[in-house]
Design brief:
about 90 residues; elongated
Amino acid sequence: MKLTESRIKQIILEELSALSEQEEAPEEPDQQEKIDSAVQMVDKLLPKVNNYMKYEQLIKKVLSHDFNDEQGKLRVLKAVKTQLNKSI
């Protein structure tokens, strides 16, 4: 099969659509359960954070965490920004 410019464009478009479908696919149930349990654990410990310095350390730790996923990090940062705007 000869690769033409139009075939290369078609392959690229197919790959891009496949990638976007993967990003939109929901996470596996096991992954979601792990996330939920981790969030529940933090939620149980949150009342022990009892002064502004500890809150500051906690927020800095979350924001500096290596997400290994730029899109995920952007979503978290947008959520933080939204919450900050609501709080102020």
